Amino acid sequence: MENVNQEQINPPAEPLLPRCCAIRFRPADQPCTAISRITDLHHDEIVMAQTDHGLEPALVYGEPRPCGPCGETADQAGAETGTGADDEAPKERAAAAALPIIIRRASREEQDKFLALQEREKGNFSTAQHLIAKHKLPMKLIKVERFFNGSKIIFYFTAENRVDFRELVKDLVQEFRTRVEIRQVGVRHETKMIGGLGCCGRELCCSSFIRNFAPVSIKMAKEQGLPLNPAKISGICNRLLCCLTYEFETYQNMRRQMPKPGKNVSLDGQLFKVLKINVLEETVEACALDDPERVITWQASEWRRCEPVKGGGKPAAEREAGAQKTNHGQPRQSRPRPQTNRKPAPARETTEPDQ
Predict the structure, then answer these.
(1) Helix, strand or coil, per DSSP, at residue 303
(2) What does pLDDT average to over the chain?
(3) Taking the CA of residue 82 as centre, how many other CA atoms within 13 Å lie in the half-sphere pointing to its CB?
(4) Would residue 196 be called left, alpha or beta, if left means φ above 0 and alpha means ψ between -120 and 50 degrees?
(5) pLDDT in tens, 316-326
(6) For residue 132, pLDDT beyond 50
(7) By C-alpha distance, which of 249, 208, 199 is closest to 227?
């Protein structure tokens, strides 16, 4: 009988990689990534996650997936090779260290306390609104967050200017008998906290997946040919839509390759004037200089063969060739400027008053 290696019969178990799981600390909060070694979690299950201020209950938002030691999925960890991955490794480890860690499933008592916590936050919200009206403060309360262990309450508000809420803090501490923190946020963060539906009919980007707000300018709307109507390019927060940044770089790259509107171009020896371009369809509308009434639509295979035309109505290639050789093939020489003999202006006579 052949000797069979024991390791071949019972191979050693592979080390269990941590799992990445999306969780919500409140039903209306934005999902965030957490690390867990529990592999059989289910959607809407309540778990206890370790955060920077202690254990907090959270709702599971999706099934766990394998991830690498830095918080990325197993496929992403295997795809990262080369010096670039080594340079980014410290940053990824630091980001993974800040992720919440799912410790265990919540007990029945913790689940009941978690549901009661949401009701207490609503009551705290009403109490804070009453105190704000009492002190006549020009501020709008947005959200209240209460730590699971009751050690701290955070109040979020918006205001046009700075608000002196020192007296309000004293009343809140006396009312709730715990630490109180008041934070002022902008209108974009207000919309992110409240949530809603955008003009596209989907959940707002800021409340669903955007972590940090990127700067948005009116130039992005112009580059994409959108109507400069504030009602059409603004979101619920009355600021420019965040989605204007998604395709802005693509429009810029494609416009650089296409002829510019208003310019003259040459195609197959004929001169045309560019009237309009369509970036999405990659088409160009132009008209012949000798027949302006006739509009022609070029596809990508046609306008890519165009040559720019400058002064004189000649193509760029012919203009450069003519500039290099003039006077029967001799290089053109620069002519000296004629010197003009201008007489200096006569000096003005000044008279001093008699002393």
Answers:
(1) helix
(2) 77
(3) 3
(4) left
(5) 555 455 555 54
(6) yes
(7) 199
